[in-house]
Design a protein that fits this description.
2 domains; Lyase 2-enoyl-coa Hydratase, Chain  A, domain 2; 2-enoyl-CoA Hydratase, Chain A, domain 1; 257 residues; 12 helices
Length: 257
């Protein structure tokens, strides 16, 4: 996969996608999003990849959208451009996504971070939705995902004031999983990716589906969805292998089928 705005590296069991626009603090533009979606679609079909890390660099995960690309657009141009359709494709990625965040994760960067399933941050992470400062508001899910993550009043504080919070405050709010020194944030994300990659991929995939379903439905419908996925896994070879290995006190050999 040859891209200009991202770098893709495959490791054993997982892949790393790194934003590659350091001169603009990894600002998110249309081309970057196109490449990100293309990479994720390819990795979703790659049976050797069971988890994906999305990261930037120490200075910035992504400092927001590329404002120059939008500044002169009309409402109709933005509607026709439909740039947020690509975000829906990221949301539908079947394998676990881990965000490894350092430095700025603002606006679209924060929204992309929240699209991921697990977030590891360095001590230097700065997170927020400051769109109000340039006359707009979050448009890639910020008002919705942030509210589900931290509640109404904290979301209102961030979105209406443009406040930026540090890593420790984001951790207290439940917006991220873990804070580590800046020199370790990517390695910590890789350790989690390795752990997830060691699990049966079908169970991981259906478990992710079930957790995400809880945001879209009632508790009754969510429980029904969970049970159906649970029952479905009993049709897999991995379920038979996993339970046999447990009773035989040996390490399971997952096949992903």
């Amino acid at each position: 996969m040859n891209f200009k705005n991202i770098l893709v590296t495959k490791e054993t069991g997982y892949a790393v996608i790194q934003f590659n626009r350091p001169d603009v603090l990894n600002a998110i533009n249309i081309k970057l999003m196109q490449e990100l979606v293309e990479a994720l679609e390819a990795l979703d079909k790659d049976n050797d990849v069971r988890c994906v890390i999305i990261t930037g660099n120490e200075k910035a995960f992504a400092a927001g959208a590329d404002i120059k690309e939008m500044a002169g657009a009309s409402a109709m141009e933005m509607l026709i451009r439909d740039q947020f359709a690509r975000w829906d494709k990221i949301r539908k990625f079947k394998k676990p996504l881990i965000a490894a965040v350092s430095g700025f994760a603002l606006g679209g960067g924060c929204e992309l971070m929240m699209t991921c399933d697990i977030v590891i941050a360095s001590e230097t992470a700065n997170i927020g939705q400051p769109e109000v400062n340039i006359g707009v508001m979050p448009g890639a899910g910020g008002t919705q995902r942030l509210t589900r993550a931290v509640g109404k009043v904290k979301t209102m504080e961030l979105v209406l004031t443009g406040k930026i919070i540090g890593a420790q405050e984001a951790l207290r709010w439940g917006l991220i999983n873990k804070v580590v020194p800046v020199e370790y944030y990517l390695e910590e994300a890789k350790d989690i990716a390795k752990e997830i990659a060691s699990k049966p991929p079908l169970a991981v995939r259906l478990a992710k589906e079930a957790v995400l379903k809880s945001f879209d439905t009632t508790i009754e419908s969510g429980l029904e969805f969970e049970r159906k996925n649970f029952y479905l896994l009993f049709a897999s070879e991995d379920q038979k292998e996993g339970m046999s290995a447990f009773t035989e006190k040996r390490k399971p050999a997952w096949k992903g089928r």
